[in-house]
Amino acid sequence: MDLLTDLEDVDAIDVRAVSRLYQVLDRRPVYSEGLQHVVQAVEQHYTRTSPKPLTRRLLASLLSETGGHFEEMNWAQEAAQCRTIAAELAPGGPDRSILYLLSAISHEQQLHTLTSLTVDAVLRALLYEVGRSGRRIRRAGILSAVAYAAHSTGNLARLRTTVEALAPVADTPGCRALVIFYRSRLLIADGRIDEGLSVEQEFTRAASRVGAGDRAHHQVVSALASVTPHDSAMAHGSEATLRGDYAEASKWYGRSVEELPPSPLRSAMRLYAEAARVQGGLLTSPAALRACLSRLCVDDVFAARTVTTVELLLTGLLMRAVDLHEEGHDAEIVAELADFLGEFRGGTAVGRPQDGGAYDTDARADMTLVDFLARTTAPVTPADITQDLPGHHVVWVTLSGAGVGEHYLTVVTLRPSHPVPLARRTHVSAADGKALAQCLDEDSEDAPAEAVQRISSLFFADVEPDAADARILVIPDSVTWAMPWNELAPRGATDLTISMSAGAVLRSRPTRSAAVPRVIGIFDEIKLKGSRLEAQALERLEAQGHIHFTRVHSLAELRNALEAAPYDILTASVHGTESDGFEYRMLLPDGPSSPAALLSLGLPQVVVLGCCWSAKSTERADTTAAALSCMAAGASQIVGGLWAIDDELAGRLLADTYDRHLRRGVSLSRALRQAHLALPQDLRPGAAGLAFIGRS
Questions:
Q1: Residue that is last in its domain, among 474, 500, 526
Q2: Residues 6+ apart with CB under 8 A from 231
Q3: Cβ pair 655, 534 in contact under 8 A
Q4: I need a surface site. Which of 170, 391, 567, 656 has the fewest CB within 10 A?
């Protein structure tokens, strides 16, 4: 069968969505909530149309594996449901599924033209089906094909699993030689270069003994060519990297960029080319760094996030910029790279309107957000920020380092009265590290005052001390995202906002003010006392004539109301689950719902999520939290929970925030800040998990 035809149009999106569902099973341990999400997503998304043959086989394999996990949990009814749906989707069992799946990764297919997520879904399904196939299936041949596809698409995690499975069933000299070859690649990828080269030599000797009649002969010849320097530009680059000749490596990786069509693999080659320049110390000026940044943008480096680790290179570029600054160069490029790093962490998903049809199901919505994250954007300059965000202090916070005692904190501060940013890199001492740990996530609620003061001094030392009415925008990295920012900020700060990047803030639309704002809310007043406090506060404001307030009790009611009339503020005050991404659930009164369900509604510009973990930092590079999902759908201002906070305290804080914002006319970001500072001293740490995100 022709895979490229089979994956045309929407089917390609469907297969990528399957791969995202597989990622739920990759998480350990696997929880029942995740398994139920898999079944719900399949029923919701794939029952609308008849999937093509390959898609059906992938779904059947996914559901069969999900059913196996349910059986391990003794959930017999759910396991049976999975088996029934799988049998209906793909009759004929695993042997027939293997034939379909193998066609997708044959040597005739151009794997680099498919997305890495699509290939990963096929490999994942094959590994599962081989494990339960009949005696007639030759496992060694199938696993060799899987190893080839994993290696050629840079999927090291899947290659590692495949080699472990292939080794005990290798049934010919050629197949055993392939096991040696792929082990050498894994060793080199792990940085164990000498061991990898030694095993590579062992493969060369084993390959010389493989005859033309061996079933694995063709693959062995292909593998043998890849260890010689004349094979390809990519191989030249790899070989030069192993020698430590980074100038040569950069040249060859750059040439491989020219040879490849636009794809995540091409983006990864650009990433490797620029990483070689960083590693070799070839970026010797701010101009060289800007040229590097330009090349990364042209070749869509963020698209490589599903192939390799992008953040490591971007952090290396930032550290190189700090090196140059410490040598006497200006700090503008430091700020530009710090913000570009923030764009990678999720900022690029903001301010890019998308047709609402892309959000019609959880699975489709999640893939749309992955596409948003893969869009490389142009860097913003300090001049851009100063012009569009007048009066703001912008503070970028980045924690870097590989091991204990090797961490550095880099803080870049752009002050409204100075066009040139200040950049400061500080070695994280043992005392600093302890204070940082005490001020992270929910632990920060019990942090001693001296730890909070210590971290505040580290982060905000360059904020103008005499600035009255200071407005501060913080761009934290993923490590420092979930911190008690309203407690850490200088007491003189009257406006405190966090965002993924300054670029995201600049792309967000300024919110409009309405004479009598229209507010719509959905609440869990039965289980959450704080939810009752919020609803009562909004009812009082309506009775006083300050707002028009609409209360809904289900997702369907919310959808109908938003379709019938425009609103200025949406508030959702319900329980939230701890997962991130499309597994995150807001427990609405009529049942659990993912952020994807909200994305299809046409959100107002202001969304208040009184839900635990709704604004948490995501665990995966290709996933978004609920708050970021809302911003990708068009909201400009979000109030969300960074961790699990006490619902009554959250309700009290938000009730005061609504009064200040909707009755007294204070901006939402400033109202939340004022409401926080108005709490008794002993309650403020417990309320600091609610944060304002977006454009103040």
A1: 500
A2: 225
A3: yes
A4: 391
pLDDT at 585: 76
> How far are the Cα atoms of 18, 103, 125, 145, 163 from residue 110, in angstroms, in the given order?
20, 12, 19, 14, 22
CA 291 from centre of chain: 26
Q: How many domains does the chain have?
A: 4
- In angstroms, the CA 380 to CA 293 distance is 11
How far apart (Å, rounded) are the C-alpha atoms in residues 400 and 417? 29
Distance CA 102, CA 105 (A): 6
Q: Which of 294, 295, 287, 342 is nearest to 314 (CA)?
A: 342
Beta carbons of 634 and 603 less than 8 angstroms apart: yes
Give the dihedral sign, CA 152/188/186/189.
negative
Cα–Cα distance measured from residue 521 to residue 651, given in angstroms and rounded to the nearest whole number = 13
What is the per-residue pLDDT for 44? 75
List the one residue out of 555, 561, 513, 519 whose CA is nearest residue 537.
519
Would you tell me how many other CB atoms lie within 10 Å of the CB of residue 92? 12
Sheet with 408-414: list strands edge to edge: 422-427, 408-414, 392-400, 470-476, 493-498, 690-694, 637-641, 606-609, 569-573, 518-523, 548-552
Alpha helices in 260-301 (DSSP H): 264-279, 286-298
Q: Which two tokens stand for residue 195?
A: 């061991």
Reduced to 3 DSSP states, what percent helix, strand and coil does the chain have, rounded to the nearest 5? Answer: 55, 10, 35
What is the mean pLDDT, run by run of 10 residues, along the chain of 696 residues? 48 75 82 84 74 85 94 94 91 84 70 72 91 82 90 85 94 94 87 83 93 91 74 78 90 91 86 94 96 96 86 93 94 96 92 67 74 88 92 94 79 91 94 95 95 96 79 94 95 92 93 92 90 96 97 91 94 84 75 72 90 82 78 90 93 97 95 96 95 93
The b-or-e profile of 110-123 (16+ CB within 10 A means b, else e) is ebbebbbbbbbbbb
Check whether residue 251 and residue 157 sit in a common domain.
no
> 637-641 and 606-609 as β-strands: parallel, antiparallel, unpaired?
parallel
In this structure, are 230 and 245 located in the same domain? no
| 311: containing domain | 241-344
Same domain flag for 40 and 145: yes
Pick the last residue of a domain from 469, 500, 531. Answer: 500
Residue 525, CB-side half-sphere exposure with 13 Å CA sphere: 13
Amino acid at 352: R
Tell me the DSSP string of 81-129: HHHHHHHHHSTTHHHHHHHHHHHHTSTTS-GGGS-HHHHHHHHHHHHHH
Number of other CB atoms surrounding residue 257 within 10 Å: 22
pLDDT of residue 581: 63
The amino acid that residue 293 corresponds to is L
The pLDDT, as a whole number, for residue 25 is 86
Place of tokens 């739920």: 24
**Edge-to-edge strand order for the sheet containing 575-576?**
575-576, 586-588, 591-593
Rounded Cα gap, residues 215 and 235, in angstroms: 25
Q: What is the pLDDT of residue 651?
A: 96
> What's the start-to-end Cα distance of the chain, in Å?
54
CA–CA dist 459, 426 (Å, integer): 10
Q: Using the 8-state DSSP alphabet, how is residue 46 labeled?
A: H
